[in-house]
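Interim report, section 4.2 (structural modelling).
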Amino acid sequence: MPQIFHKILLVLSLMAATLAQAQLSIEITGAGANRIPVAIANFTGDAAAAQVVTSTVRADLERSGLFKLVDPGGATLDENAQINFGDWKGRGADALAAGSLARGGDGRMEARFRLYDTQKQVALGGAVFVTGNDQLRAAGHRIADYIYEKLTGEKGVFSTRIAYVVKTGGQFRLHIADADGQGAATALSSSEPIISPVWSPDGSKLAYVSFEKKKPVIYVHSLASGQRQVVANFKGSNSAPAWSPDGRRLAIVLSKDGNSQIYLVNADGTGVQRLTQSAGIDTEPRYSADGGTIYFTSDRGGSPQIYRMGANGGDAQRVTFDGSYNVSPRPSADGKSLAFITRRDGRFQLAVMDLASKQVQVLTDSHKDESPSFAPNSRMILIATEIGGRGVLSAVSSDGRIKQRLSISAGDVREPAWGPFIQ
Amino acid sequence: MKKLLIPALLSALIVGCSSTPVDETSGAPVESRSGSGVTPVTAGGLDSRGLPRELTDPKSVLSQRSIYFDLDKYEVKDEYRDLVGAHAKYLVANRGFKMLIQGNTDERGSREYNLSLGQKRSDAVKRSLIMLGAKEDQVESVSLGEEKPKNAGHDEAAWADNRRADMLYKAPDGRGEF
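Predicted structure of the assembly:
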């Protein structure tokens, strides 16, 4: 028995070692102007477990750029402790979280915490998350989401996941990781390119384009089972999948009838129906959050620009007008803005359009931004960009103020896709 | 030794200095001369691999397989009219041969848009060949977008190399693509 246990331990530590190499490292290169000062006390109970949880909470809040972490000065407080509000106000904290880690009857860990407003001297609420020992960081993300929502009024995205493609030498790997880049797992390895991953609305599947059949073919891949299904493999190219918000259909791009045109297909690959009828290129379809509109890229006006049409096709209206290259439209989940890539003076940069005012703001000063992807709370946009000749991911707040860079030591990172809220 | 080096150096110079696309033939003589200095010849118009010498001999116009495009463009430029014409003529005279056209783009901009742009480029070459007599089922056009750059560089010269459609033949016995 002990031998088996040791073997399992060995395997686990080997896995941890391989994962560490494939881990994204995060660097924060900008922060919000008015950060909320918040203190996270050390939680009571199992010290090692509590440390994992509190350090995850602190790192999440810090990374968001919206909070300033106040040093708790070694204070260890559980969720029922008497709070000396004056003391915490004195340290400069507007909010304080305290909590505990305890092993439940079934061997799982229970993380309890309470959040306080030190100005009003009241508890803002609390929660308990039950988790396995290996899921302590997930509990930390949940707590950070709770604190984020209570203090900013918006839902947090610390518990969400991201997908991206890593190219190392001639090898392509589709990775799934936590939003902080930790816990990366490989969903697919291939010696041929993998592009355009998109999450199903329920977060259980990814659609993407793989060149493993020596040409672009669209797959739907169930993450838990690893089961893959070909959704479109017609003559020519099959690419640019986009889920309808109800998860039942995909807008895709096929060149089977000549030019790249937009089609609809059921998520199981049946019922292909053509949506656009143009003489040029129509590609990169994306549904608006309400499902009523499809944004897409077309060169029908002579240069690649962003257009929109009803979800069942029909007349299209041009959306972008500045410059000769505006591509990769991504409507935000709150319906207010549209992220896209614009070419300015030969540089490819992330831009955001306020859909009500049509005002466009360029958010980066980089030269090779690609593949924007909104966080499900619409506050951050994940992009692929290039720094020092290497592909990295960058997260930029939709006001351009907060910037984080996610890079991987061993390869080029590209094609990011931010997953939906965890249900 | 000297005799071997000079053509090799010349070719290297041509490749090195040129910022405009260089077709693959300028590299080929170096390869064939650097070994024994003897190019094997098989009688009957076939090369050592049994493929038509007309298609593979670097001196033959049909060994030129690449058509280069301007930025954001997918029109076949006039300077390639003769080359496309020669290939169309071969396909008309050799109905058993098929052709695969791979469209490529440089690395800049959207991967998905580039996939469509590469398709437009290969389609444009295909359309020209068919207008000149090639049969629809003889020619297939596909796109590799920006995913398979021939030139791994990140400068204007590399980008020009990669804005390209390649014509690959498939022999009647199924051998290809060459």
